[in-house]
């Protein structure tokens, strides 16, 4: 997953890109487990479909979307700026299905 900052994330959202943005903190063990699941799912998705951002570097997005905890996966469908936010990373299959439902 490619790391992006606040400006790049806002640009992608504004341009109507379909993407999943993984929000994490570096010292979070649950985030590390979620990242591993997303890395597996990423191999079955189009390149660049899953991006990641350290929550400490995207304060405006955190405030705008009221991100309440990490890990969080924000899924943008490309049609509006309001993402679906997933906090419970159940399984690779669950994440893959949620992301694919937006990508198609």
List the helices and strands and how they pair.
Elements: E1 2-3, H1 6-14, E2 19-24, H2 29-42, E3 50-54, H3 59-65, E4 72-76, E5 84-86, H4 92-103
Parallel strand pairs: 1-3, 2-3
Antiparallel strand pairs: 2-4, 4-5
Helix pairs in contact: 2-4
Give the structure's gist in a few sentences.
The chain has 104 residues and is of the alpha/beta class. It is built from four helices and five strands.
Q: Which features would summarize this protein structure in a list?
A:
104 residues; globular; single chain; alpha/beta; 5 strands
Account of the protein in words:
It is a single chain. It is built from 4 helices and 5 strands. The protein has 104 residues and is of the alpha/beta class. It has a 5-stranded mixed beta sheet, with helices on both faces. The model has no long low-confidence stretch (mean pLDDT 92).
Sheet bearing the most strands, described?
Answer: 5 strands, mixed
**Helical percent range?**
40-55%
Portion in beta strands: 15-25%
**What order do the strands of the largest sheet run in, or round the barrel if closed?**
1-3-2-4-5
């Amino acid at each position: 997953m490619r790391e992006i900052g606040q400006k790049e994330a806002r640009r992608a959202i504004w341009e109507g890109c379909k993407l999943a943005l993984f929000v994490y903190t570096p010292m979070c063990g649950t985030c590390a487990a979620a990242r591993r699941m997303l890395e597996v799912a990423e191999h079955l998705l189009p390149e660049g479909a899953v991006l990641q951002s350290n929550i400490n570097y995207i304060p405006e997005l955190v405030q705008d979307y009221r991100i309440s905890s990490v890990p969080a996966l924000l899924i943008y469908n490309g049609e509006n700026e309001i993402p679906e936010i997933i906090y419970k990373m159940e399984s690779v299959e669950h994440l893959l299905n949620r992301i694919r439902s937006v990508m198609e």
